Amino acid sequence: MKIGLLGGSFNPVHVGHMMVANYMAQFAGLDEVWMMLSPQNPLKDSATLIDDRHRLKMLEIAVGADRQSRIKACDVELSLPRPSYTIDTLRYLNRRHPSVSFSIITGSDNWLGFGRWRESESILSDYGVIVYPRPGFPIETPSHPNCRIINAPITEISSTFLRQALSGGADMTYFLPPGVYEYIRHNHLYE
Q1: For the chain, which domains are there?
Q2: pTM for the full predicted model
Q3: Most buried of 7, 47, 96, 145, CB within 10 angstroms?
């Protein structure tokens, strides 16, 4: 079984995230895509990061309860030591699921800084990376055989934009998966 891990803070999860996950599940040769909630990216600021339980609940709402779906919510990093490093997560998952071939799915914006990730060469050689385009971050042809480019549709939606819009009282219903906007409003998130 081949599983792609689409990691993110999902603060909040939006239709752009879901489009990438869906595209990868359909066109990247993967059996499943696990949307892996990151507790805190060591390379990003945590000032606007809401509580893990809210982000996990929104992710669960977004992927739905269909057990047959090829897209799953994954909370494994919430139980691992922090800060969370991708290589540690991959090794943990590999021990728990030795028959599964895991790879990382990342945007071209994160790919540009991939060399700063802990043990980035081990991630490439032992697991592999799938890169999709992000606006303003062109992808150069990778020189490593375990790095693939998948030209998923580009979307201009960002969680930063959504947080700002929501804090200003904007109705963002169609930018968020069904049920997520209602969850945000009910719990007074991003106000």
Answers
A1: 2-155 (3.40.50.620)
A2: 0.93
A3: 7
Instruction: Kindly report the three-state secondary structure assignment for every residue of 6-27.
Output: EEECCCCCCHHHHHHHHHHHHH
- Under a CB-based contact definition with an 8 Å cutoff, are residues 32 and 63 in contact? no
Q: Which two tokens stand for residue 131?
A: 């890169």
62-87 pLDDT, tens digit each: 999 677 789 999 999 999 998 889 99
| Tens of pLDDT, residues 86-121 | 999 999 999 999 999 999 999 999 999 999 999 999
- Regarding predicted confidence, which is higher, 89 or 142? 89
Phi, psi of 138, deg, nearest 5: -65, 150
Distance, CA of 117 to CA of 120 (rounded, Å): 5
Residue 177 vs residues 92, 101, 129, 186: alpha-carbon distances, Å:
30, 28, 26, 15
Structure letter (DSSP) for residue 150: -
Helices 15-27, 52-63: axis angle to 10 degrees equals 50
Handedness of CA 17, 35, 99, 125 (dihedral sign): positive
Asked whether 13 and 37 are in contact (CB, 8 A), the reply is no
Structure-token pair, residue 187: 């719990």
Torsion of CA 133, 88, 3, 5, to 10 degrees: -30
